[in-house]
Each structure stands twice: as C-alpha cells, then as structure tokens.
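G., the chain you wanted modeled:
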Amino acid sequence: MTLYGGVLGNRLFERLAAPGRSGEVVAEASLAEVVESIKRHLVDLLNSHPGHSECAPELGLLDFNDATIGVLDLERNIQRAIRQCIERFEPRVRQVEVESLPRGSDPLQLRFQVHATVELGRDQGQATIDLLLNDKRYQCLN
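Predicted structure as tokens:
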C-alpha cells in the first residue's frame, strides 16, 4: 500500500478537507474509512475514459457499447477491464477479483462484485464492493 506521505490512506483532497486528521498514520485508519475512500476513487476511476487524462492517458475504462460483442463476452471483457484498471490505478488494494452478479429486474444494468485485500499499514483486511453499471455510469452499492 502506498502510504501517501505516511498519513491516513485517503486521497489527497480527502486529507486536505480534514486537516485535523493529517497527522494520523495509516495504521490508525480503520478498514471502513479506507474502503469508503477506495469506493469514491473507484467511481471516479471507472467512470473515466482512456485519453481524457494527459498525465495518465490509459486511465479509465473503454466504452463497451459495441453491439457486435455477445452479452457473455461483454461481461467477461468488462470484468477483466475493471480488474486491470483497479490493479493499475488503485495502489491501496491487492489480489483483486471481479465477478459478475445476476442481473436484477432491469436487463440493461450490469452488476459486478469486487473482492480485494486492503492493506492498512502492517495489517490487511478483505473488502467486497458491489458495482452497478447503470445508464453508462458505474456506482458503488455497498
């Protein structure tokens, strides 16, 4: 896990918004706090598209609106792309696995579950994050 300068494992702007917490070390951060920060980052990350960031042109996910890809292939491609994107651009997690979840009542929604190991200083915790692709936008559900 990147220690972000030895302070709480949140993103830069989250640390700036809470200046009273800036001296805390990663070990003092709870798993829940770090997972909430990771979830906010994943929403931003997964809703970005390659080429929209000059400093990291590969950042984000491709648009999967190709009607020639079968539904099963589409889900597998999205699963793989989500895993690769998280592994590359979210340094606070390791051992990322992404699985498809059964569709709900809306056939146009895709649901995924991300399982990852979150490192908290010397400790580790397991996190599960449910993702919903709804109307071309990713959301975290839990």
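The domain at 31-140 is CATH 3.10.450.40 (Nuclear Transport Factor 2; Chain: A,).

Shout if anything looks off.
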